[in-house]
Amino acid sequence: MKRDLPTYYGQPALKPSPYKFLVALYVVVGGLSGAAQVIAAFTRDRTLARNGRWMAAAGGAVVGPALLVLDLHTPRRWYNMLRIFRRTSPMSIGTYILSAFGGASVAALTPLRPLAQPAAAFSALGMTAYTAPLLSATATPLWAATPRALGVQFAGSSFATAAAALSLVERREHPALASIACTATVATLAATAAAGASRKRQDVSGPRGRWGLLYKAGLALSLALPLACYASGRSSRLAAAGILAGTLLSRWALFQAGNESAKQPQEHLRFSSHGR
Amino acid sequence: MKHATKIEPGQRYGFFTDTTLCIGCKACEVACKEWNVLPAERLGLTGMSYDNTGALSATTWRHVRFVENMGAGGERPHEMPPFQSHWLMMSDVCKHCANAPCLEACPTGALFRTEFDTVVVQQDICNGCGYCVPSCPFGVVDLSKVDGKAHKCTLCYDRMKGDLEPACAKACPTESIQFGTLEELHARAGRRVEALHAQGRPEAYLYGVPGSTGGELGGLNAFFLLTERPEVYNLPEKPTRGADRVRPGLMAGLATAVGLAAAAAWFLQEGE
């Protein structure tokens, strides 16, 4: 039973973020490109390595930055992101991670590869990790309540989506990619369960309403379906498609459900009544 | 408040908003709109108390809240206490926090701390990323759909540079809004709480002074004297600092990424 706090006529006590589908798509694309670069760096299969490098460069240097610039409300000033570095701001940290990753990933397509690829794979770890604190450092109750679990969820699904996307463009079945996707999905599932438990302890609601349903549908597609496929040992393409579609759906729903939670004063006031 | 001394760079300035003195005239809202040339947002009634302003926004930087205390179960009480009847009025504003989460979130440096220790958005730098909007634990900062930049109270930065107190404090007819250095305001607010306690109002307390309720974030340069629990005014009891959540989230994500990268390396070497 949730504690009932007084509010000011139920009026919102917070402003919702302006982030919707574009940024949710960026989070998926950014994480996917990062993990694709890591896979490319470790494989001995030349086709797989080339696909991974191209995927990383396309996501990290073209699609990702384009999505972020498009989402600005004054896009012609995008370069002001590079004016300062602020370690308290995941958006500022992310700006430099994305710049390093995008640059190194493009360089890894040129003869500079021996130097550039390790740098790209290293900054790729940041790409899979920084977008969760981007959400949880805001005051939005749904995102702020579980910073650690969200970090594991986002990094986990980055590896799952990268392995899934790479296996879809490969001609032959790749058991290693299926193993990576399966391991990452198990980690994401564990973190998702941990997030639910942690929200319950803190008296904060999970995704609710229409977006809550979409969130659960996304989880079913991206976690339950692939794990069932891998357990039965067939149809790894279906599993890969489920991971990609489901992750995008659950990410988008998490953004929208967070924006809704910011408009619920009870959520914010309850979350802010614990000492931390 | 007629401030006698000069407004000097290097001093910490702020507002002390004493809600027991507020009469809900909204002169602060009007003075703010006039001085800062902010357009009216909507005309008409919200149908919710006397609050027809609704909320702080990109073009509303003072907002008077009207709380009607109806007694238990929404039942109209038959006796009125001889003090402020049943209305609580509170002129809300940007808190200019000491550790301002909006400023800590801003990736462009558009949000900065001025020489008067206030927090201001530089309009020629803001690129409208909107990250300050969900970062504010008080729901103050807002993006303008008109110009695509973030806007909020500047504590009348321009007026202070010209040695004038902020427009809202100047216009307040009951001195519910007082402007001054934090040192002076904290002392004055402390005396006011003691006086109210002596007058039989033991529920009066300060919100947003370091060490008091709402004193997280290093204290608020715009702090309040309240007579009900903070939630009644939609204020968080313990506002949280988003920057505290960056490290745990980032570390958990990086640890996961390193672990999965190691697993990937193992699978990829095994598989071929």
List the helices and strands and how they pair.
The complex is a heterodimer of chains A (276) and B (272).
Chain A: H1 21-42, H2 46-71, H3 90-107, H4 113-129, H5 131-136, H6 141-144, H7 147-169, H8 175-201, H9 209-232, H10 236-262, H11 265-271
Helix pairs in contact in A: 1-2, 1-4, 1-7, 1-10, 2-3, 3-4, 7-8, 7-10, 8-9, 9-10
Chain B: E1 13-18, H1 27-36, E2 62-68, E3 87-93, H2 101-105, E4 111-113, E5 119-121, H3 132-135, E6 142-143, E7 150-151, H4 157-161, H5 167-171, E8 177-181, H6 182-198, E9 205-207, E10 222-226, H7 246-271
Parallel strand pairs in B: 1-10
Antiparallel strand pairs in B: 1-8, 2-3, 4-5, 6-7, 9-10
General description of the model:
The complex is a heterodimer of chains A (276) and B (272). With 276 residues, chain A is mainly α. Chain A is built from 11 helices and no strands. The longest helix of chain A is centred in the last third of the chain and has 27 residues, at 175-201. Chain A is globular and about 60 Å long. By secondary structure, chain B is of the alpha+beta class. Helix content of chain B is 26%, strand content 16%. Chain B contains 7 helices and 10 strands. Chain B has helices at residues 27-36, 101-105, 132-135, 157-161, 167-171, 182-198, 246-271; strands at 13-18, 62-68, 87-93, 111-113, 119-121, 142-143, 150-151, 177-181, 205-207, 222-226. In chain B, the strands form 4 sheets. In chain B, strands 8-1-10-9 form a 4-stranded mixed beta sheet. In chain B, strands 2-3 form a two-stranded antiparallel sheet. In chain B, β6 and β7 form a beta hairpin. The longest helix of chain B has 26 residues, at 246-271. Chain B is globular. Classes of the chains: A mainly alpha (276), B alpha+beta (272). Chains A and B meet through α1, α3, α4, α5 and α7 of A and α2, α3, β6 and α7 of B.
